[in-house]
Every structure is written in C-alpha cells, then in structure tokens.
C-alpha cells in the first residue's frame, strides 16, 4: 500500500505513529510523511525562517530512517487556517501520494493545528476521486482509509486498534530523536508541566507506548481509532 501520515507539525508523526510506519515500511509499503505547518514558532532564540528550516531538515532525516518521503505544506505554525486553497493543497497531497491509508491526528486534541489537520483530512478524503475538483495531481480511483492516532498524553482516547511496535520501538526512538530542536524546546518551555513527575515530553511519549502495550498484551504499542462513518470502514485490517 501507499501510506501517508499527516501531522500538523514536524515531530507529531514520530511521536504517535513512527513505530507503525516502520512496520509498514518493513512489509513493503511506500511511506510518505507530511506536515501541515513548518513549525516556525518552535524556538525562543531563532527567527521563524531559521527554525522552520531546521525543523524541516530534522523531519527529512527522520523520514529517511524508514525510507519515507517527507513533504511540508509549509503553513505557519499556530496560524494555520482553513480556506479553499488549503483544502486543495491537501487534496493535491493525497493525490500525489496515491494514499491507500492515511494516519492523522484525533479530531479532538489540545492544539488547534492538530484538530484542523484532522478535520481537513477527514473532509477531503471523499473528494480524492472527483474529477471536477482540479489539482496539479490527478484523481485516483479510491477513497483512502483513515485512522486517527492518539491524543497528547492519551487523554479522552479509547483505542479501537493497536499495533505492536515492540520490534520497531528502537526505530521510533531514533526517528523522534532527530527532532533535537523540539526536545529542547519542549523541555525549556513546558518544564512546569512535567516537574511533578520528573519527566519530560520525550519520556511521556515513550511511556504512552509502554502503556498501550500493556493494554493489548505486548511490550510496546501504538493505538488508533478507526472512524465509523460511511466510506471510512473496511472489513480488512489495513494496519500491520
């Protein structure tokens, strides 16, 4: 299959589905990793263009670890809004990738970029085959399946599907570790959120993988929700 993971920011995909993508790559799937924004506010010392360039390079290096192609739609971090042009850009992205399966954010999460990315992906999926919607890349003959990865810290998220990432856990760690600028940024700017647990953002993501593994009887897992509306369901499991 062609698998497309769409996150709002560089490092979102790695945090919540890198182990799954590594398993997809291992079974021969073509992997694309995309981000809505370029992450251009993710530094207290660098200008937006400077940190955006760093974050996109970090994302490319991460994607390369599993042979994936990284694509940035290049919208501004935290100033990402829906418009006709944005919707068409997402349609064009999915058509370029000819995605059979899309992984993206849960519709309800703490960050508006996360929620809007999820909403647009869900909205445009049924438009992919429609010839009268014109984009650079041509329509193809299917509506891609969508799975939502879990919310930050797993809050209010009840999975329908799990993927055992025990064998690819080390790949997930290596992919996320490419985002050195953000490991530092989160540690410096959100330290009060973690001080009571003597933890940090990076560790919290790894703890989630262990917690989801406990739920499904393996060492490490990533979890997802399968949408239940029309054209989103399939009798076949697409996740590895």
Tell me what the structure shows.
The protein has 240 residues and is of the alpha/beta class. The protein has a single domain, classed as Rossmann fold, CATH 3.40.50.10320. The protein has helices at residues 12-26, 48-64, 84-97, 112-125, 169-177, 180-189, 191-194, 201-216; strands spanning 2-7, 30-37, 69-75, 101-104, 145-149, 161-164, 221-225.
Structural topology:
Blueprint: E1 2-7, H1 12-26, E2 30-37, H2 48-64, E3 69-75, H3 84-97, E4 101-104, H4 112-125, E5 145-149, E6 161-164, H5 169-177, H6 180-189, H7 191-194, H8 201-216, E7 221-225
Parallel strand pairs: 1-2, 1-4, 2-3, 4-5
Antiparallel strand pairs: 5-7, 6-7
Helix pairs in contact: 1-5, 3-4
Give a short summary of the structure:
The chain has helices spanning 12-26, 48-64, 84-97, 112-125, 169-177, 180-189, 191-194, 201-216, and strands at 2-7, 30-37, 69-75, 101-104, 145-149, 161-164, 221-225. The protein is built from eight helices and seven strands; from the N terminus they run E-H-E-H-E-H-E-H-E-E-H-H-H-H-E. It is globular, with a radius of gyration of 17 Å.
């Amino acid at each position: 299959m062609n698998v497309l993971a769409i996150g709002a920011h560089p490092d979102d995909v790695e945090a919540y589905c890198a182990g799954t993508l590594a398993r997809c790559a291992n079974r021969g799937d073509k992997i694309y990793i995309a981000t809505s924004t370029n992450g251009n506010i993710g530094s207290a010392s660098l200008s937006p263009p400077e940190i955006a360039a760093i974050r996109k390079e970090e994302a490319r290096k991460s994607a390369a670890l599993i042979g994936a192609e990284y694509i940035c739609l290049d919208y501004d971090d935290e100033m990402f809004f829906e418009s006709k042009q944005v919707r068409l850009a997402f349609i064009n992205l999915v058509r370029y990738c000819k995605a059979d399966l899309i992984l993206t954010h849960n519709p309800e999460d703490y960050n508006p970029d996360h929620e809007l990315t999820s909403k647009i992906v869900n909205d445009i999926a049924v438009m992919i085959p429609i010839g009268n919607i014109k984009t650079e890349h041509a329509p193809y003959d299917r509506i891609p399946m969508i799975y939502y990865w879990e919310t930050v810290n797993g809050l209010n998220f009840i999975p329908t599907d799990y993927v055992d990432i025990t064998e690819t856990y080390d790949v997930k760690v290596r992919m996320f570790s490419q985002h050195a600028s953000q490991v530092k940024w989160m540690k410096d700017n959100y330290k009060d959120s973690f001080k009571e647990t003597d933890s940090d953002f990076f560790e919290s993501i790894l703890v989630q993988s262990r917690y989801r593994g406990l739920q499904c009887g393996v060492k490490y897992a990533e979890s997802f929700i399968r949408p239940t509306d029309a054209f989103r369901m399939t009798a076949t499991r697409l996740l590895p």
